[in-house]
Amino acid sequence: MSKRRCYSIVLGMLLGLICSGGAVPAQAADGPAVTQPGSSASQTPLGEVRSTIDELVQAVSDFPGEEHLKQRRDKLRAIITPRFDFQEMARLSLGTNWTVVSPEEQTDFVKVFSDLLAKTYLDRIENIRKETVKVNTEKVIDQKAIVKTLVTHKGETFPIDYKLVHKGEQWKVYDVVIENIGLVTNYRNEFAGIIRKEQFAGLMKRLREKTGAQAKAS
Questions:
Q1: Residue 124 near residue 12, CB atoms below 8 Å
Q2: Under CATH, to which class is 3-27+40-217 assigned?
Q3: What are phi and psi of 132, to 5 degrees?
Q4: Which of 71, 140, 162, 163 could form a disulfide with 147 if both were Cys (CB 3.0 to 4.6 A apart)?
Q5: What is the pLDDT of residue 75?
Q6: Which residues pair with 176 in a beta bridge?
Q7: How many Cα atoms occupy the beta-carbon half-sphere of 91 within 13 Å?
Q8: CA dihedral in degrees (101, 204, 112, 121; nearest 10)?
Q9: Which one is predicted more confidently, 207 or 31?
Q10: Where are the domains of the chain?
Q11: DSSP label of 101
Q12: For the residues of 179-204, what is the DSSP string, one character each?
């Protein structure tokens, strides 16, 4: 499967793991997961991922069809917003340019960037009919973790790893790695190229146009 195709799918899923037609089977791997000492299953990164799956699937079930489109998307957005560290994703995606722009520009970028990711997710999820996700293992080192999964899409299987950071009492996703290529790294390279040619203002213009186009299509 091409990298472009993989990114298209993962942008549609972000946390992935659900389909508009019903629940996705999340299967435990044969080997034991690595967890933090003293943590309950629901507090582990893998537990957080599975909990999110359950909530997303329930939301899709509660608000089916075009007549419930707005309610469904509002509910899905409410679920994913606290589960993703959009600020950290935005900071890492901007790379060294993060320290160059002003605090006001940073705040503006985080908002536009998170809106773009969320809208992309909500748009793509309407088109996904069947995904099978196998949740394999989690590996926790200090305050960061990786949850490894395998996704089968149209007969092809590929790995998607979720990088999480522990903040407060919750694990939050801050990067998604597809076939050893990180989503954040992909954005950072793309954004750096745009900034070199069009400055930061040019990047923001592009992101706003993209977000606006998605909103009109919704």
A1: yes
A2: alpha beta
A3: -120, 120
A4: 162
A5: 87
A6: 162
A7: 8
A8: -130
A9: 207
A10: 3-27+40-217
A11: S
A12: TTEEHHHHHHHHHHHHHHHHHHHHHH
Cβ count near 10 (within 10 Å): 21
Query: Dihedral of CA 85/90/96/102: which sign?
Result: negative
Token pair 């080997």 in the structure block, residue: 31
Residue 213: CB partners within 8 Å, gap ≥ 6? none
Which residue is associated with the tokens 């590996």? 139
Tokens of 142: 């200090």
Residue-wise pLDDT tens digits, 179-188: 788 888 989 9
- How many CB atoms are closer than 10 A to CB 175? 20
Alpha carbon dihedral 198, 210, 181, 55, in 10-degree steps, equals 150
Measured in whole angstroms, how far is the alpha carbon of residue 64 from the centre of its chain? 22
Q: Given CA atoms 171, 173, 174, 175 in this order, what sign does their dihedral have?
A: positive
Report yes or no: 28 and 135 within 8 Å, Cβ to Cβ.
Answer: yes
